[in-house]
Protein 1
Amino acid sequence: MNKDQLVIFDTTLRDGEQSPGASMTKDEKVRIAKMLEKMHVDVIEAGFAIASEGDFAAVRAVATAVKDATVCSLSRALEADIRRAAEAIQPANSGRIHTFIATSPIHMQHKLNMRPEQVIEQAVKAVKLARNLCADVEFSCEDAGRSEMDFLCRIVEAAIAAGARTINIPDTVGYAIPELYAEQIRQLIERVPNSDQAIFSVHCHNDLGLAVANSLAAVQAGARQVECTINGLGERAGNASLEEIVMAVRTRPDVFSVTTGIDPVHLVPTSRLVSTITGFAVQPNKAIVGKNAFAHESGIHQDGVLKHRETYEIMKAEDVGWHTNAIVLGKHSGRNAFRSRLQDLGVEFATEQELNHAFMLFKQLADKKHDIYDEDLQALVSDSRAHEASEVIQLVALEVQSKTGEIPLAEVVLSIRGQEVRTQASGSGPVDAVFKAIESQVNSGASLELYSVNAITSGTDSQGEVTVRLAHTGRLVNGLGADTDIVIASAKAYIHALNGLEANLERTHPQGSGI
Ligand SMILES: CC(=O)SCCNC(=O)CCNC(=O)[C@H](O)C(C)(C)COP(=O)(O)OP(=O)(O)OC[C@H]1O[C@@H](n2cnc3c(N)ncnc32)[C@H](O)[C@@H]1OP(=O)(O)O
Ligand SMILES: CC(C)C(=O)C(=O)O
Ligand SMILES: [Mg+2]
């Protein structure tokens, strides 16, 4: 099947900039435009030249910087707007004037205060003037989604006869429903006698969350240009998102008889650039460019993806500019994903029992902590190996009272050679109190040479990794402990060091220490 070309018209720099708070400087617009050009966007709407001196300068700068895409400026159906647009795009290798007027009864009556005949007349005058200044003219029927069909047919026919090469049928207020909108496009193409002399375009807003669905339905009905924006930026709830349109068409060639010239590998970097410049964060679950778009957290999905990616992925993360897909370990993960990530980190489990023990600790951690990073896993495995069941002293429970103006008190339950003992002590701080409580039972006689705490990752839910160094009769022993509670991590580290000391003493003095 020979596929038609779908023209991708990006209006991030014009409609996208109409998002409250998304203003961009001239240089920022040029940076985004260069990325759009690299991605092979066909038309870049760079701004609304008459809006301000700054917007004029930005359109002109984009028209100067971009060589391989058409650069366009918006203008009302007014002579001054059109002349300003023509001047702004003048440096472009390929320029377009985009002129528009509203065609819905509500807009004509209440906003323009014009009769339908006057609107047609003004549209024709505008298109003719634009054609005198530029070979490539697009005409838009603003609020076409709420316009009457007969009137739309008349104005579209007149605009094409006046020289418009692209006819845009915007759903300006996001009111359209896919089937009805597709029918509107189909009828226009069928009923307008000279419709074959223009490309039909759609421009959908997302007020009902249907911008992409409406655009795609229109493509199936014969539209061959889609106006869209990076990250779906745009007036109010935004425009149709470029990345979703492009990837839908590419992923479902069985459904869409069109192709785009877009190189999708630039989608994620461009999305990031637009987000950084505008300060509009991309929601994590945003299709294609959201940070979770190719991330799997649940065990069953992770198992499937590890066995065969297509079980849960319809696109390749690498194709749209991600480094790779992501297996995110969390409380829904299973053993296969856990083992696989640790293998990647160079950790092998000698026995199934060792894996199960580390996996149990991982689930406990995942219940307490949102994001589990590689550093967490490494700490968890060393912690798990450090505190294996053969240890002489084990921490059973720990309670600390710490209040402003009062001396901290720790109560520790230890298992020493399988026997539980409960002990209490106060100290200058909660950690000091815990160490003293442990020491009051163990009587190791060791001196504390080093105590350090490290946050393994960032965030207040990070695990603290504690190192304790004890000295005894000229020997130094390190202990490690990790936990989201640094007092518990400290107790684990102290006990780990005591166990090391015990092993050392057993080797040299089989009678043992005070333990
Ligand atoms: C659906 C869309 O996204 S349309 C594009 C929206 N984008 C923008 O508006 C951003 C840029 N706009 C601006 O900077 C300003 O609105 C300007 C420079 C265009 C006009 O500013 P002002 O002259 O102060 O007019 P103002 O914005 O207050 O009102 C708009 C006027 O344009 C008229 N108008 C609106 N659309 C059109 C049109 N397509 N063709 C002709 N006149 C139009 C309105 O009826 C109104 O006329 P009035 O002043 O006689 O009542
Ligand atoms: C100017 C037009 C194309 C527009 O942005 C709209 O109708 O939403
Ligand atoms: Mg719009």
Protein 2
Amino acid sequence: MAADIGVTGLAVMGRNLARNFARNGFSVAVHNRSRAKTDALVSEFGHEGEFVGSATAEEFVASLSTPRKIVIMVKAGGPTDAVIDELTPLLEPGDILVDGGNAHFADTRRREAALKEKGIHFAGVGISGGEEGALLGPSIMPGGSKESYAALGPLLEKVAAKVDGTPCCVHVGPDGAGHFVKMVHNGIEYADMQLIAESYDLLRQGLGLGAKELAEVFRGWNTGELDSYLIEITAEVLDQVDAATGKAFVDIVLDQAEQKGTGRWTVQTALELGVPISGIAEAVFARSLSGHADQRAAAVNLPGPSGGTVTGARAETLVEDVRLALYASKMVAYAQGFDQIIAASKEYGWDVDLGSTATIWRGGCIIRARFLDRIREAYDESGDLPSLLVAPFFAKALEQAQQAWRRVVTTAVELGVPTPGFASSLAYYDGLRRERLPAALIQGQRDFFGAHTYRRVDREGSFHVDWSGKREENPA
Ligand SMILES: NC(=O)C1=CN([C@@H]2O[C@H](COP(=O)(O)OP(=O)(O)OC[C@H]3O[C@@H](n4cnc5c(N)ncnc54)[C@H](OP(=O)(O)O)[C@@H]3O)[C@@H](O)[C@H]2O)C=CC1
Ligand SMILES: O=C(CO)[C@H](O)[C@H](O)COP(=O)(O)O
């Protein structure tokens, strides 16, 4: 019998996605470059559903019902191109190739355009949730044509996570829209993780709390507004004890955060689109700084406070203040991420629905959080919000949090605890709400040294001052 869907690339994500399809009643053709992973999947999990294992790409393609639907789950970049190149000559017009990896959206656009010429649909589909999500229900962000989604959608929606019965899977938009939204998801993931790490660091330094006590703090936070997957797993990580040493697990892990590239892409793309995603950028840079071990070792004795505990009234409110600072900074990260999606949607004509995007992030993915319901409501109520932060729910929450946020940044600065995420998010917030910014002075400087011209607050047009002459203003 011909299989309903194929999965090629059977490492942690592909294997579990294939099992998810099979557990949901689809027959699944499975294939991997090296045969061992295919055999292992069929022998270990064959009882979970109907799998058709193939040793070669030819067998794999031949085992699928037409039009073929093939999900590629391999390393992003060259490996994805290699798989596409191997499969394409075996496919027919109307077949659908899905890239479920973390591809750069520009690669997806290039691949879709090339395959379109051969009549093959190419859909870049963001998938989040890690190993467990792929098996039990990920958040799925499909791009590609409406036509490809008409065929793929029912399968993807069946295996996606569900929240209140709604699948965390909606057609995001054409060509690279799905992978773009997944990239921004990962950028927000970086920001959220950095903010949580700063909260942990400041409370540990400022109050002298141990890892187990901090696990309890995070567990408590997870019952309120901050309820989210990342807060939940933070408590688990902090609770973990290293079997070899009996120390807190977090204390035996090397403090150098790695990255595979999606956070960096988010920032690079934001720079190109001119969108200030400063909180996300700080999170990427904080990981980079952590990895500069030699510089850190050389700088360790530079002057400045190195921790120290907070006492008195400030100590009593620090946990709640940090919770509020985390909540407010997290709102900024999401607002910046959504701004970036809006900018790309306009640039590429994707028409991404922001409320639906918030809906698909409510479950299954790494950034799933209770407050995504509020984001969905905000964009459903007003699709052209100038910033998420001005939506009534968020404006009110920021009002309640902003004084605590300032106290937290002040405390961190006094203690010498680096909080780039909190500080830059607060600076972004203050920058947005400032009636007049010092950008006017920058314009003056630009006009002085480079005759770059400026606009006036009281008249239309561009102007230039003859700085090296009589310093008179002339229309540019
Ligand atoms: N891991 C995670 O939590 C998440 C990963 N992703 C993305 O999903 C995709 C798969 O991730 P993951 O499961 O972690 O696997 P990896 O990213 O570790 O990729 C391993 C898979 O890629 C295959 N592969 C590598 N090079 C080639 C090549 N040149 N030709 C053919 N196949 C090749 C490997 O085959 P072989 O066994 O023969 O070496 C193996 O099946 C990636 O794009 C990743 O970014 C998305 C969300 C979460
Ligand atoms: O895509 C993901 C989740 O949605 C991965 O977990 C993500 O790639 C991890 O990124 P990094 O290794 O850069 O921290």
